[in-house]
Hints:
This protein is mainly β. It is built from two helices and 57 strands. A hairpin with an 8-residue loop joins strand 11 and strand 12.
Amino acid sequence: MYFLLMIFCACITLNKIYSQGCPTPVFAPVSSFAPLNSSFSLTLGDFNNDGYIDMITANVDQTISVALGNGTGKYVTGSKPSIGFSAHYITNGDFNGDGKLDLVTTNFPSNIAVLPGNGDGSFGSPVFYSTPGFSRAVVTGDFNGDGKLDIVSANQEDGTVSVFLGTGNGSFIPAGNVDVKGAPRTLATGDFNGDGKLDIVTVNEGFNTLNQNTISILLGTGNGSFSSPAIFTIKNDPQVQMIPVSITVGDFNKDGNLDVATANSGCINSTCDNVSVLFGNGNGGFGAPTIFQVNTQNFSIQLTSIASGDVNGDGNLDLVTVAFNSQYAFVLLGNGNGSFGTPFNYFIQERIADNPIYTTLADVNKDGLLDIITLHGRFHVSILLNTCQAVSLPVIQCPSDIIVNNALNKCSETLVLNATASGGPSTTIQYKIGNTVISSPHEFPVGKTIVTAIATSAAGSTSCSFAVIVKDNQPPLVGCLQNLTVNATTMTGAVVNYTYPFVSDNCPIVLFQTTGLHSGAFFPIGITTNTFEARDADNLVICRFTVTVTDPRCGNNKVNVCHKGTTLCINTNALDAHLSHGDVLGSCAVNSSITKSRQSANEIIPVNNFSISVLPNPSFKNFSLSIASTDQSEMMYLLVTDILGRVVEQRTSMPSIKNISIGEGYKKGIYFLQIIQGKQSKVLKLVKE
């Protein structure tokens, strides 16, 4: 029965006709009709010009069978014209330019026949052209660029292809035979090197010892001749006896270059029942084959034919193949990157022992979906009508940009995200910031964050984006110095040291000086204004104080010195003697202010009117604070920060006399306690053990 495995190229593809497709192809139960007596191939076209796809088969009883379609997927067997030879392969084209489809068949033992179409489903008498031996397949195309269809046949026994150039009136001129360096079982056409000229690819079966199990690429020159063939293998393991029996052409990885896929057979087990995909490089070359297994049985099913098209409407080319020893059509869904999924199986054999030998794809019921048409070798044609219902992508709706204030004492806010999506109960929504997946609710930092919401269903994914803007409405807390007055240490000024303002905030903060002189600088006699700005994400707090360096002069050649608490105006000639006895340049009033305003490490602003005691310190549990102030007219503010400046606790509007407990939930570490009343502040260090 092996001689029945004479299956050829089925390269019919359609453009994508619905948007998103269905994840799993769905077909109506198989239907069939029996127009024939042992056929080998069929061709599709509108042969009676009624707008519906018809079928014609090539039969071994020296006839062709015409089955006219009505646009519903049903067919009625019509005439069976005789061609005088046993027909093996058939295809069609308008060879005489009258707008009516004509036929060409390959016939046993050594010719092709051209039958002019009458446009009503009938055909004129055949015209024969000799070939060098039995031609297994035939293709049509304009190979010499004159706008007229030509014919090329595959001569397996001779190892050649025969070229017949069309004249445009239905006749052909033999243009010679081209050696393909193999035994061509079938062939297909395409522009494999992107030069705008039609090329040929042949599938070479192991009929003879030359280049078995290969494909040959014959690049067209544009004048009806072809370059020497380039040979590419269809298998990776030379020990596996894979035989290519059918071919289809398409851009399976969407790189803009034509690829080829072959259906393979030939083993006594399932090893060879697979598909080889060779990816084109755009210059007529092909890479190593990628193998996709079709048969999952423990015996060989003998693949016989392959076709390509977008079966499930997702925009990617899929593969369909049938096998001589199987009752099923196998659909391998393409992923668009050159890979294919595990085959789906669909029952196609209504009649016992009527083996599938040829398959192709077409929209026979005009619903925009590709159907599967399979020729069974002895009795009938089966049709699987595609009922795939397009699954639309989910529709996602993002919220408007979200603008919120920060959470109290935090440089962030936690929000629940509320994008919505339609697309069925299986639709899920995922949120991302950049490439990072986040959950809802999510803590957003102060500032602007772009969030992408992605809705995913069985049909695919859609996305939208929105901004989350968290504003910092908590300005920095700044302990600003009181104005300082110091005596000049020279006749022009003094070096003044002061403590920089203390700052604390819920967010990272920057403190910088915009006017004045830094601590430790030489300040001239007079008033210098020091300005500091504390900035966080959204706020600016300005701290400003003055440093006054007094003029020690009290007359002509006289200066003030502080002598044992009394200010004396002395002659400058006596200054060195006074200073050597411990007197200080300047008035006693200013020196007293300097003494009182001298700052310890824990004091930011001079504190004269309240006191703080903390017990115990260090503490294992909590701290007991006792605060007393002589100024009971103004409330106090308490702030606790950790060693990094992060706010741990704060209290406002506290009475000026207060006993409180803090630190119960503090972790081990060092903390800073600041008590502020008006413009005065005191800072103490707390140690939690």
